[in-house]
Write a structure and sequence with these properties.
Layout: H1 5-8, H2 14-27, E1 33-34, H3 46-57, H4 70-84, E2 93-96, H5 99-110, E3 116-121, H6 125-133, E4 137-142, H7 153-159, E5 164-170, H8 182-194, E6 198-202, H9 223-226, E7 229-234, E8 247-250, H10 253-264, H11 272-283, H12 288-307, E9 314-315, E10 323-327, H13 329-333, H14 342-353, E11 355-356, E12 358-359, E13 368-372, H15 377-392
Parallel strand pairs: 1-11, 3-4, 3-5, 5-6, 6-7
Antiparallel strand pairs: 2-8, 7-8, 9-10, 10-13, 12-13
Helix pairs in contact: 3-11, 4-11, 5-6, 5-10, 12-15
Length: 398
């Protein structure tokens, strides 16, 4: 037993595993359609890259503050106030190496061994493992498909024990493509405040919202809930900066100061060059994001049109993110297809048709598969041609 117990208790990421298998097929010369990993297919906008180059030319290549470059924290504070109605000082903001790092450092800051962290099922693949690595215990709340898999205040209340410390809330939601409305967030906020819990609000997909809707941060619903909230966001999705690794958290000063201690003894701070690129991303974005969202909206409709033509597939209407959570229980129930789980269906689609999808088991639920429309429309059409070819050889589809 050379390794820590926490390594044996931590599972690998199924989403990354599927991506690795797809890459192996591509390396062998196969044509692979990727509906899997949630990564925008755009390259980082040129104006952001220019900001990084300017930072290098200006000599921003040395150590900086553990909490992050001051100019970036100021830009984040400005963004939170203008877009989310949230007032944070620079001392209440910390910059991390991606939103994933923000979540992990926040959990390490908040949890003592045995503390419980409530999260709704389905959940993002890394939430449970982050909690375990921080010494906590994941407590999974079973939600209902007919409610868009969104956790209600009653479901949250029923899961609280004397060991509960944190609630993980993701809105807009990966993997379901849903989002929590203000009317749904308010009763959750009341339960959180009444039980003196901390909610970590993962808002990384906030820009990807459709049909004229808008997202609401739970922290904006009053000073009481704001004092119990750590808001997490980042640059990977909105600005197509996945490889730059830049995220941030905003919250009560004692929590942010605790996060600074942990970050100071681990990575010191994210790349200063990346951080200056983040300043440029926020301050010079103009209307570029609106154009990106229009493209994703077109892809969303293209994928829904193809899904509507497959009678054995149902799906949750994708109101946000760039995912569609597809119900494949009709396929699993039909012996003609010869698949007994969503995982097996995803494996066969990859093996036989070279189409990457992510099975619901990655998110704690069977019977569903996540499709990402992070690829162009011709690829969406080709991918569904292949999926229909897989299904058409079976009696159940005909």
């Amino acid at each position: 037993m050379r390794l820590s117990d926490k390594i044996y208790n931590c599972t690998d990421s199924l989403t990354l595993s599927m991506a690795e298998k797809a890459s192996a097929y591509e390396a062998a010369g196969e044509s692979v359609i990727r509906f899997g990993t949630g990564e925008p297919d755009f390259t980082t906008p040129a104006y952001i890259c220019d900001g990084a180059k300017a930072a290098i030319d200006a000599g921003y290549t040395k150590y900086d503050a553990v909490a992050g470059v001051l100019a970036l924290r100021q830009a984040i504070a400005k963004k939170l106030k203008a877009e989310n109605g949230l007032e944070y000082s620079v001392g209440e903001i910390i910059v991390n190496s991606g939103a994933k790092s923000s979540l992990s450092v926040a959990l390490q800051t908040l949890l003592n061994p045995g503390d419980e962290v409530i999260m709704p099922r389905p959940y993002w693949v890394s939430y449970t493992e982050m909690v375990k690595l921080a010494g906590g215990v994941p407590v999974i709340v079973d939600t209902q498909p007919e409610n868009g898999f969104k956790m209600t205040a009653e479901e949250l209340e029923a899961a609280i024990t004397d060991q509960t410390k944190v609630v993980m809330l993701n809105t807009p939601v990966n993997p379901t493509g849903q989002f929590y409305t203000e009317q749904e967030l308010r009763p959750l906020a009341q339960v959180i405040v009444a039980n003196d819990l901390i909610v970590i609000s993962d808002e990384i997909y906030e820009a990807f919202i459709y049909d004229g809707h808008h997202t609401v941060s739970i922290a904006s619903l009053g000073e009481d809930i704001k004092a119990h909230t750590v808001v997490v966001n980042g640059f990977s999705k909105t600005f197509a900066m996945t490889g730059w690794r830049l995220g941030y958290a905003a919250g009560p000063k004692d929590i942010i100061d605790g996060m600074k201690k942990i970050q100071g003894h681990t990575i010191s701070h994210p790349s200063t060059i990346t951080q200056h690129a983040g300043v440029t991303a926020l301050l010079e974005q103009g209307d570029r994001i609106e154009g990106t969202i229009r493209i994703f909206d077109e892809r969303r409709h293209a994928m829904m049109e193809r899904l509507d033509r497959i009678p054995v597939f149902d799906y949750l209407y994708p109101a946000s993110t760039f995912y569609i959570f597809v119900d494949v229980r009709k396929v699993l129930a039909d012996p003609d297809y010869g698949v007994k789980s969503a995982y097996e269906l995803s494996e066969r689609l990859l093996l036989e048709q070279k189409v990457v999808t992510i099975p619901g088991e990655a998110f704690g639920v069977d019977g569903f598969i996540r499709f990402a429309y992070t690829t162009d429309i011709p690829s969406i059409e080709e991918g569904f041609n292949r999926i229909e070819a897989f299904l058409s050889g079976n009696k159940g589809y005909n």
